[in-house]
Amino acid sequence: MSDVGSNDNRLPGIDRLRGLVMVLMALDHMRDFFDADALRFRPTDLTHTYRFLFFTRFVTHFCAPTFALLAGVGAYLHGARLGDPRRLSFFLASRGLWLIFLDVFVISPAWAPGSGRVELGTLYAIGCGLLALSALSRLPARIVFAVGAAIVLGHNLLDGIHAEALGAWGPWWRMLHEPGPLPLGASGSVLYPALPWIGVVALGYGIGPLFHQPIRRRDRVLCGAGLASLAAFVLLRSGNFYGDPASWTFQHEPMFTLLSFLNVTKYPPSLLYLLITLGCAALALPALERLPGRAGGALATFGRTPLFFYVLHIYIGLAAAMALALAQGYSFADIAKYLNIGEPPPEFGAGLGGAYVAWALVVAALYPPCRWFADLKRRRKDWQWLSYL
Which InterPro entries does the record associate with it (predicted)? Predict the structure, then answer.
């Protein structure tokens, strides 16, 4: 993750919302590390999942879209402070390349330890968004907003184009819009195709001027946009009209019919996925702006150190999960086998309840170092390299 922009004149609502999505993201990753069901089936697979597992996964859907949107907002606010389009373009390009580098060489080894595989995920997607924004930022914000909206609204029209039909260009199509293997025979896969995420980052940049408006007007616009997004989601989803390649269907019981209705596509993020997640984010931001006390302060601390939190929580979670598996009597070879082919034994890991416990412990353990690092970034503005962490 990248906290685009400096620490000057921060908006508490943005930091708190960013911090909230980081905490929720940690829940999803602890589920991956500690619940063996993560290796057996997708938590949104209605033929295998159960309610608690589905909603544990569903609530974390809000993380990546919200963070990508806020990366765009932060880029606009940083550019407004810089007052120099060329410096902003360089800043965004270097930050985008840095995130992609981290995804390849720091994050991928944690998700596929010892395999040498590269899994292009969240950092790759946001990095591509910032690279695109380094060029788009030369345009007026309203034009960037229009570009972002066009991508978000229209990219599902490309769902019928598949890499297999594009010959030599097919692998590169997967980098943009269809998950699948990496190009050039490289070991690994593209989990987060870039095009829709470029749209979300551009959308965030385009709404940046709103955060220079009076609070009441900004909150009114955000709440209106959030409600309109959720209404559009319900309307489009109700008739399976447009916006998601997977239609909802009636299930054996009403609750699972609701799960089917909510089960929208993340890879790549469909229009309906973005409508429901960003709609809720727009409604949450004004509320978090007014969140008092220690809860607001803790979320803001995490929101000011997102990349620091992101890298640390993955490696701490991985180390703890490995330690638990070894304590249960499994070898490193066993763990590698389960990671590669799935189907671990029922007693492997700690279950979903254990994942929640690990989540609470990891978040609590990360608060002191994140608070220290946030304070260091605030005090040492002369250490420019800190902004890349």
Answer: HGSNAT_cat
Residue 6 has pLDDT above 90, yes or no: no
pLDDT-derived band at 388, boundaries 50, 70, 90? low
If pLDDT is split at 50, 70 and 90, which confidence band does 143 have?
very high
SS (H, E, C) the chain: CCCCCCCCCCCHHHHHHHHHHHHHHHHHHHHHHHECHHHHCCCCCCCCCCHHHHHHHHHHCCHHHHHHHHHHHHHHHHHHHHCCHHHHHHHHHHHHHHHHHHHHHHHHHHHCCCCCCEEECHHHHHHHHHHHHHHHCCCCHHHHHHHHHHHHHHHHHHCCCCHHHHHHHHHHHHHHCCCEECHHHCCEEECCCHHHHHHHHHHHHHCHHHHHCCHHHHHHHHHHHHHHHHHHHHHHHHCCCCCCCCCCCCCCCHHHHHHHHHCCCCCCCCHHHHHHHHHHHHHHHHHHHCCCHHHHHHHHHHHHCHHHHHHHHHHHHHHHHHHHHHHCCCCHHHHHHHHHHCCCCCCCECHHHHHHHHHHHHHHHHHHHHHHHHHHHHHCCCCHHHHHC
Give the residue-averaged pLDDT of 38-62.
95
